[in-house]
Structures are given as structure tokens and as C-alpha cells.
Request: fold
Amino acid sequence: MKWWAAALVLAVSLVGVGCGYHTAGHMVTLPQNVRTIAIPGFVSQSPTFRVEQVMTDAVVREFNTRTQFHVIHETRPDADAVLKGTVLSATASPLAYDSKTGRAASVLVTVSMQVTLTDRDGKVLFQNPSYLFHEQYELSRELASFFEEDSSAMDRLSRDFARTLVANILEGY
Reply:
């Protein structure tokens, strides 16, 4: 009877080992031949100044820190894949108003992105036509301590976008 229980425990543990589970964040679904990713500057359809540069820089930084891929900043024939992004819109809208002055007290920055990763033959490896990210920031009420928070908010938003994008590409969502 003891060997029967031991055999059952062994069978259950072997089934658990072979069932395909993996540690989150370690599964790379890109083809094995992809080692170099070209990330040319993203394109912007928004009049917001430099938003495409901030978003591109954040994605390049995230790929460099989280992956072993060789990242180049322009489309070249030796790149195994090309990641293209388009800023569809970037807006800043008042979110709350100061009841005394009637001025905006906080602002919501919203950026909409479209991203496509293709291999050198043009086959789509990853695509998301509708990323939407938001970041809120407060406006200073006192002129003496005024600090432009919009660029910091855009930096936070771009880092969130980059983390999400790289995770989506690596984990195949």
C-alpha cells in the first residue's frame, strides 16, 4: 500500500511538471531568429511637441533594460524585426478646477498609440492599434512655487506605456 501512495504522489508531481506552466514574465514568444530589433523614431499625428520622441526613447530604454535584444534606432536591412509606432493623439484636459479662482487645479494627459512589430519579411509578429494611456498631474496654485509638471507626467506615462508594450510583446498578448 505504501508503494501505491508513493507512485500516486510521483505521478501527480510528474503531471504538474509537464503541464506547460511557466514563470510570469519569462516567456518570449518572438521567433528564435529575432535578435536585432530596429526601433525608428515613432511618428506623431498629434500637434503635441516631442511626444513621439519621449515615447520612442522610453520604449528603447525598456527594451535595453529588460531584454537581450540588440536595439538599433533606424530601419536597416540587418534588423531581424522592426517596431513602428504612431502617436494617434496626445491631449491635456483639465480634470479639476479650483473653486476660488476657477482655474484648472489638475490636468489629465491622454496619449493614444498604435504599434506594429514586423519581421524582415513583413510578417506581423505583434500589433496593437489602440493603446490608450492616462496620467494626471496637479497644477501649482502659487506662482512663487510654480513648477511645470507636464513633462514629468509625460515621462511617467511613457514609462508605463513602454513597460506595458514590452511585456505584451514578450508574453504574446
About this structure: The domain at 27-171 is CATH 3.30.160.150 (Double Stranded RNA Binding Domain).
